[in-house]
Amino acid sequence: MAKHRTSLILSSDEHTFLLNFTRKGLHSARELKRAMILLDSTDPTLDNPTIAHRHGVSGATVENVQRRYRQEGLARALQEAARSGQPKKITQREEAYITAIACSQPPLGQARWTMQMIADRVVELRYLEAISAESVRLVLKKHTQTLAVQAVVHRGSQRRLLGEAGRRARSVRSSARSGTPPPVL
What we know:
rod-shaped; three-stranded antiparallel β-sheet; single chain
């Protein structure tokens, strides 16, 4: 099998940029690998299989990075293209509306909101044309987890919950020892 020797010629500015890119700043592992592949591709003594083995990637990856550099430039060779996927159907604003409804007083005669009642209310207020109870549940689950993580303050080895007005509640460790349930926020 013939070895591919593909030597790239980088401008001095691009070479300096890639050296700094690999040494400074926070970049994804994929971007760093691509930068190192491009730097090694300038060495005429290295062939593509050697570059691939050196960086733990396939030969096709080396060729793809080199091809993207030649055809589309340095920025495109380092960054990933946007991937197609299912776009979000519920925006952050709509998630905020759902959360606000769930936190409001339930309708008269009801002790609490159900997922279906929240979904019906969102459609009634014309925030969305249609939404399922399961979608409401997922939005509320996401926001509940976010709020719970924000409420925990890590200081040293103890984890504390914030009470009303940001005051410190009993520590999780002390309430577990005493056998009393932690305060409900």
